[in-house]
ABC transporter substrate-binding protein (Streptomyces regalis), 589 residues
Amino acid sequence: MEGKRTIMRRSTLAAVAAIGSASLLLSACSKADDNGEDGNKSAGANAATKGVVNASTQKGGTVTYEYSDVPDSFDPGNTYYAYMYNLSRLYARPLMTFKPGPGEEGNELVPDLAASAGVPSDGGKTWTYKLRSGLKYQDGTPITSKDVKYAVERSNFARDVLSLGPNYFQQFLEGGDKYKGPYKDKSAEGLKSIETPDDTTVVFKLNRAFQEFDYLVATPQTAPVPQAKDKGIDYVKSIVSSGSYQFESYEEGKQAVLVRNKNWDAKTDPLRKQYPDKIVVKLKVNAETIDQDVQAGTAIDLGGTGVQAATQAKVVNDASLKANTDNTYGGRLVYMAINTQVAPFDKVECRKAVQYAIDKVSVQTAEGGPIRGDIATTVLPPDIPGYQKADVYATAGNKGDAAKAKEQLKACGKSSISTNISARSDRPQEIDAATAIIASLKNVGINASLKQFPSGKYFTDYAGVPAFDKKQNIGLHMMQWGADWPGGYGFLQQILHGDAIGASGNTNLSYLDDKKINEMLEKAIATEDENQRNSMYAEIDKLAMDQAAIVPLTYFKVLLYRPANFTNLVSTAAFSGQYDYLNIGTTKK
């Protein structure tokens, strides 16, 4: 997923990135009851990346989340931001999910709605899941395998209605290229390649082997939806909960309030603890205000992308404040996509000119310095399997090479280029990074103007819409991406594969459709041997860089401020270093 799509996620080597001296790496756990009335005694810098901070079973109170924009959607079948994957588990249970735990422990897959992991057959082309017994929706009606089947159908096969999530199921299920989705298909059978032989069994029949399918069913797209209650795009206004919380109210663009689901049964759910009485999600809150509220211990930053620049300077220069921070790799790549469908960037030489022109140190500085990311030179971050160190467009000190850039411009038949660059208006650091890039490009004769669009519509209405990009001459797109699951395929497929390109909602913002890359991705996911798969992912990375379709900027690192008064805080690799939202509680009544 990212910074959007950060589904999605992170992977294997995500070690703690220390902010200060080793002496700050104190004990990971701190009992809320031992921390005074407000639980505000610091556990030390990076404590939540190593264990659970303020571990507590205390119930009651309200947990408040704040976000500077609006999410793409609260609908579990129509979202693709990592923080929404994280939050949605409170009211939507997928077949599998990630176990709450610090750092890499959070990457462990565990059964959620399913009673156990999937059972593969036919060489990885068929996957069978059995549901837990006694599952119920918020209204007390039973959850069945047919509801899981329907959830996948609506989320993947009605792209004209629900276009915001990934479309892996559409690509991999037998007949997925022909099925028109449940809103157009009025037959009772639905998609034939999802079978429900009884109310507790769901079988997925794939058109090719998929050796990591358990990761795919961990997306909220498998969270059950009762067909009779589905209202298409308006389902977001009346979501039927299968989790431990349900919606009490939802004001679009303003606020959502969740309360305990009385028909949730802890016996059917070993993961959720249902600690707070109420969960409030406030939207369109000023980013600086969020930082202030987090430091005051009254809110959690829902987006999980870290503190703003001014706050960062304040906390890293104050030992007592720094002790309340968690700094870790976010399993993401901050990059700029070069749109291969917008002239003159349809020519690889023009794309290479951009690669050489950019002073990556100035971009890193604009993002907040090394504490916010290491300079990147590959598509895969170091903490994703398949990463191999490389630098195809190396420049002295990573500060760009104007001579090489102009040489590539000449090879492209250009002496200058006029284009636009898109960035998200509610992400100040992304705007600052784009501004730094614009300055670098200007030095070599590439004149780029900044176009700002809101995060919630960035992929549906603007950068992710090829027709819009061509009309507006947007050849460059600021982007941030995290793995949909901790593997090379989970990171690369949705940003490099031609099958991920659609009329809107795209995350392949380079609009790259390279036959060799497509074929290698498919071969890799069908390969049973993990080491072999990882070698293929490294080769795909190299091919993408040769195409110059992506300009890696930094390997993202997040700097979270750990708010007092909240319990069970743990930074997880599964959700880009964010705190795991599943069981956060509060000491405040």
User: Anything to note?
Assistant: Residues 2-40 have pLDDT under 50 and may be disordered. The chain has 17 helices and 19 strands.
